């Protein structure tokens, strides 16, 4: 059976060409949404305007893809109030949902959950803790030369740790807290991880988060504290890294001349690993 083609058009312009065009548009949309999803993973919490700037899309195009991803349950909106913005309208920021995190790869999750559950039942909770410690021992060994090569500044060490985490798929980033805050007394760095390949596993077995936190503390040489985890429902894993007291202009002049005691080491802190937030 032959199909007629409207005179003056090629077969590619026929009804079959229309189907092909529709399929092509859908494929382009899917690839674009994957880019948007990846950008939300890497930079979230992120606004639609920031996504548009990063990806080179118009605001209307970004919002169309964000709406589609939201309908699919792959992203969700976090309403964030900014203390510096006064009484203005809270900002809307996009983050990956748990379903979006799962889509990025948990093929063997159920097998691992069953195996660890059986291990805990047969050998007890300490066996799971030892298993988690062994898993992160490899990470610590690989990361240590990277951290040591970053120098003595804790901020640089934290940045190196974030980069190493990103190479392993955790989407690491850092930001300083307190330096520009007028009333802040202490400076800190927040280490964020936008993706956790074992998120659902860690939700059932918190030892994984605890062991990872201990590794961070040993690598950085300072006690750290977990503020949030993806496993506990946070939109990122956030680790508080204390840097030290912020030096203010004029502080030296106000000090007593006879005060010759050495300044405290900038890495000294009263935060203990026992105060870590548990996922």
From TrEMBL:
Gene3D superfamilies named among the record's database cross-references: Winged helix-like DNA-binding domain superfamily/Winged helix DNA-binding domain (1.10.10.10)
Signal peptide: none
Positions of the UniProt region annotated as Disordered: 1-27, 249-279
Biological classification of the source: Bacteria, Bacillati, Actinomycetota, Actinomycetes, Micrococcales
PANTHER family, per database record: HTH-TYPE TRANSCRIPTIONAL REGULATOR SRLR-RELATED (PTHR30363), TRANSCRIPTIONAL REGULATORY PROTEIN-RELATED (PTHR30363:SF28)
UniProt xrefs under CDD domains: HTH_ARSR (cd00090)
Polar residues bias: start-end ranges: 269-279
Protein name per the record: Helix-turn-helix domain-containing protein
């Amino acid at each position: 059976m032959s199909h007629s083609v409207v005179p003056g058009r090629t077969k590619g312009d026929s009804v079959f060409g229309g189907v092909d065009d529709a399929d092509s548009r859908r494929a382009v949309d899917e690839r674009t949404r994957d880019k948007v999803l990846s950008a939300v993973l890497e930079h979230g919490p992120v606004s639609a305007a920031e996504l548009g700037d990063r990806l080179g899309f118009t605001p209307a195009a970004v919002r169309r893809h964000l709406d589609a991803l939201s309908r699919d349950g792959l992203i969700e909106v976090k309403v964030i109030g900014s203390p510096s913005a006064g009484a203005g309208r809270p900002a809307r920021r996009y983050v990956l949902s748990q379903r979006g995190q799962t889509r990025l790869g948990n093929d063997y999750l159920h097998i691992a959950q069953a195996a660890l559950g059986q291990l805990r039942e047969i050998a007890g909770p300490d066996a799971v803790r030892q298993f988690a410690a062994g898993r992160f021992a490899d990470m610590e060994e690989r990361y240590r030369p990277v951290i040591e090569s970053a120098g003595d500044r804790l901020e640089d060490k934290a940045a190196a740790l974030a980069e190493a985490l990103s190479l392993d798929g955790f989407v690491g980033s850092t930001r300083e807290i307190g330096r520009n805050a007028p009333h802040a007394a202490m400076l800190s760095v927040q280490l964020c991880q936008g993706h956790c390949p074992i998120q659902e596993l860690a939700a059932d077995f918190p030892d994984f988060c605890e062991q990872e936190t201990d590794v961070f503390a040993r690598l950085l040489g300072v006690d750290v504290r977990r503020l949030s985890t993806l496993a506990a429902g946070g939109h990122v894993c956030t680790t508080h890294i204390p840097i030290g007291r912020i030096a203010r202009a004029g502080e030296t002049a106000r000090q007593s001349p006879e005060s010759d005691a050495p300044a405290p080491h900038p890495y000294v802190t009263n935060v203990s690993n026992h105060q870590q937030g548990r996922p």
